[in-house]
Amino acid sequence: MILLLSYSSEPLSPGLKYGIPSFEPVSFMVVVSFHIPNSLMKELERLVEEVGFTSKSEAIREAIRLLIREYKKKSAGGVAY
């Protein structure tokens, strides 16, 4: 897997770009590039369509949030943040 990070020098307005919900306080987005198997990409595309995400990026951000929330829940003895 290759992971590539870069920071945008321009702040993004929440709700205006990349399908960011207007309640999410984001001032900068990081671009992440990685390789995944074709079968996983097809599942992601199906999920985006079925659930109604505006993009694959939105679905991936939500998946990362869920993963972090679950990790914190387990590491805090069952207390979710």
From TrEMBL:
The cross-references to Gene3D superfamilies, in alphabetical order and at most eight, read: Met repressor-like (1.10.1220.10)
What Pfam families does UniProt report for this protein, alphabetically? RHH_1
Signal sequence, start to end? none
What GO biological process terms does the UniProt entry carry, in alphabetical order? regulation of DNA-templated transcription
Q: Tell me the ranges covered by the Ribbon-helix-helix protein CopG domain, including all copies.
A: 30-70
Name of the featured protein: Transcriptional regulator, CopG family
* Originating organism: Korarchaeum cryptofilum (strain OPF8)
